[in-house]
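Lecture notes, structural biology module. Today: joint structure prediction for complexes of two components.
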Amino acid sequence: MQPLASLLVWSGISVLGAAAFGVLALSRGETVNAAWLLTAAVCTYAVGYRFYSKFLASRVFGLDDRRATPAERFNNGRDFVPTNKWVLFGHHFAAIAGAGPLVGPVLAAQFGFLPGTLWLVIGVVLGGAVQDFVILFCSLRRDGKSLGQMAKEEVNPAAGATAMLAVLFIMIILLAVLALIVVNALKASPWGLFTIACTIPIALLMGWWMKRWRPGSVGEASAVGAVLLLGALVAGGWVAGQPHLAPLFTHSATALTWMMMGYGFIASVLPVWMLLCPRDYLSTFLKITTILVLAIAILVILPPLRMPALTPFASLGEGPVFAGKLFPFAFITIACGAISGFHALVASGTTPKMIARESDARLIGYGGMLMESFVGVMAMIAACTLEPGVYFAMNTTPAALAQASQVLGQAGFVVTPEFMRELAARMGETTLLARSGGAPSLAVGIAQIFAGATSVLGGKTLDALWYHFAIMFEALFILTTIDTGTRVGRFMLQEIVGHVWPRFAETSWYPSVIASSALVVAGWGYFLYQGVVDPLGGINSLWPLFGISNQLLAAVALCVGTTILIKMGRGRFAWVTATPLAWLVIVTMTAGWQKVFSADPRLGFLAHAASLAGSANPDTARLIFNDRLNTFVALLFMTIVTVLIVTSLREWWLVLSRRKTAVVHEAPYVETGYATGD
Amino acid sequence: MRRETERDARCGMRDAALPFLTRLVRVVRRIIGAPDYQAYLEHCRSAGHAPTLGEREYVAQFFESKGRGVRCC
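The predicted structure, tokenised, for the full assembly:
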């Protein structure tokens, strides 16, 4: 493009984005169309990708297409395979996109649509996408090494061990929170539970198909699985209407907790081809399709946002969905979508082993994360199209709703019991009250958008079917994360124990497999159970813990990235990773401190434990123990990251002050074997 | 327009010699992380050595390796 034309186009995009932000920020008291939110987000992503990621790629990292990538040097046709950048973009996106970018924005909508959207859009451009890109770049230059290995080599061995421990603990909390979302979505929902239960035999059939009957025929098996899945979805509506069948699939949250734990254990112990892989393929297809369809549906109907830009809970800090003020809690509630430490595990996992040329890392690392943020923006839109009264009634326990009733009434966020009953009936449920966790309210939002889109196209509105489709879509890939997470947690535990008992590290020795799987499941199962029986709904205590832990893992990744930049002699550019790192440390340490030491019993674990002392409630001792355990976990996360930051700061100081020679553990330079100019 | 390069061709997605449907299936396989034994055989041919894995072994190893990867939250 000619320089003048380019200048005009990018100036136009920048002005359009700024105008959209202006409309969003200045609207007061009237509904705003989702088109403004989409425009603001897309323009910011475009400018960020065009200018900032180019700066990172060329000036900061110095990507060099003449340098052979691990995929070229170790090409084995299986793990290390040079892959087209657009294909790898899709592959990487499918691996990083999960429930997080969908659920976090829904929960953060209690502050209004503006804070969460700003954090999603600005956070990803300056933080999340930078983290993914830098870790992908570092791993690419180190033969595809993992985050833990890089921390060990580039910072010091203690940092490597700390990072590994951090990942294991974070995995435990993450799995508990995700399982809690599924439990809250499926409790007393025969339609939902029947559909999800059917995915297990469907996955077993697919596994047998593509392993035993027709090896590698993933497409055929997935097509059959998808048809059966849609059949199960429709059949679920029929089952829910049968007086003799519905009770078989109607269970309490506690019963579902035990089922989830049993499922997680079995999935971890069974051979990977039997349940994990087929379910993963099914959920990947469903995820990509649903996200594409949701984007198109939102663009077709451009729904109005009924939630205001800011709610009173942003400053009061007494939100019924979760306690705490906008700062710092909006920034830990939305992790995936803005910045997520977990992505560093993917960016230093399979992706760097498939990159064909170094410059492709820009699209895959930075661009992939922008796409994830866009998914978060769509989730925010879906949640904010709900009437605020409906949103709060669905995401709050009766106890928390009663506490916040005065503020909700003053803000006009009210809804009648008749309306909620009618809405539940329309969605094929007995009740939608107190369905905390974000998934059901997102499902109602998606159902309304899909129903609106099918109305525009002249189709029939099938609210209940769309609602259960959305629940199935969310539950399916959450369960996939639980399968893989439990398994990876098991491998990590086996490796850790293997240092003192080598036999335990053998991944095919069944006593070790069973013992480590049981320990990992017991770990996340305990926190899940704690969340289920929590009078405030569990999300209030567990989601902030998950947010803090995920963001602290991002801090670990940014520490490693900053260390490597400094050692590469690019210390003058260290601010690109050090700035988001500083922000994350401020946010997570503040949030962690408040969760532990706040005097407000709804917010602080210790204050909550103190408020329960002397209560006649028979569960008091257990609730107090849970508060103390959560305190320990929060302090443990904070300590781990403090150790890593202090060791990193020391390393930076030694290198920058020339007291220590910088040794970069990059793979040696090998010129690409492809033709010049490729 | 960006010219097609040798490296793109090696990535197996732009190989004009392959029928469109084959290329499409290959793209989808890579995106979802599915095993592709034909691509493995092509790799062995271009690398100048005989395949060390039969189809069943290749698929089994591929799935096992997939089970060690993480899925994000």
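Point to remember: Residues 8-188+251-482 of chain A form one domain.
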